[in-house]
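[Discussion] Sanity-checking designs against the backbone

I'm trying to build intuition for which residues belong where. Below is a structure token string of 183 positions. I'd appreciate it if someone posts a full sequence so I can compare it with mine line by line.
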């Protein structure tokens, strides 16, 4: 049998979800999530969901430390498999802070998560600014101006998004929506 495709992986996650609750896992639900984690240890959504459910559920005949060790391993796998994605880092940081009571280590993870998320937001906002600017319609230029104002508050002056904000302003000025900026 080959590796399951993405549709099969999601089908198995949905089946596992249906086998228990969102805030209190059944033994069958945990079993299905664990089987999927064994089948595809790089499928981050399942790893994160299994770790979350394990935190919410007391499993009979399992010591707390054994359960925490498994959760920590799952979260480490999720961080690695996702190439240190912001959602995986966030889950790991919360675990390290709240369960392992290691605020210094958690702080580093929260900072890495925030920086990663901010890079994603900057990329998405730059793309939106460019899309709306190139559409060059009153409505889209107004949206670009509004987003640009927010971007200027959020991103440091050296961030590349400021060039996109300036371009949107030039187009808006040419369209008569705002006064032309003088150098």
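Best answer:
Here's mine. Compare freely.
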């Amino acid at each position: 049998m080959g590796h399951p495709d993405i549709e099969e992986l999601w089908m198995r996650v949905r089946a596992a979800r249906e086998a228990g609750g969102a805030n209190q896992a059944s033994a069958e639900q945990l079993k299905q999530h664990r089987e999927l984690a064994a089948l595809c240890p790089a499928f981050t959504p399942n790893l994160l969901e299994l770790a979350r459910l394990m935190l919410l559920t007391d499993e009979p005949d399992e010591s707390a430390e054994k359960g925490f060790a498994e959760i920590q391993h799952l979260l480490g796998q999720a961080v690695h498999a996702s190439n240190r994605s912001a959602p995986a880092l966030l889950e790991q940081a919360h675990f390290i802070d709240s369960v392992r009571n290691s605020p210094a280590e958690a702080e580093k993870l929260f900072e890495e998560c925030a920086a990663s998320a901010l890079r994603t937001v900057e990329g998405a906002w730059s793309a939106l600014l460019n899309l709306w600017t190139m559409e060059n319609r009153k409505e889209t230029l107004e949206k670009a101006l509004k987003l640009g104002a927010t971007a200027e508050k959020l991103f440091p002056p050296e961030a590349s998004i400021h060039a996109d904000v300036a371009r949107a302003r030039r187009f808006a000025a040419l369209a008569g929506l705002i006064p032309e900026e003088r150098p």
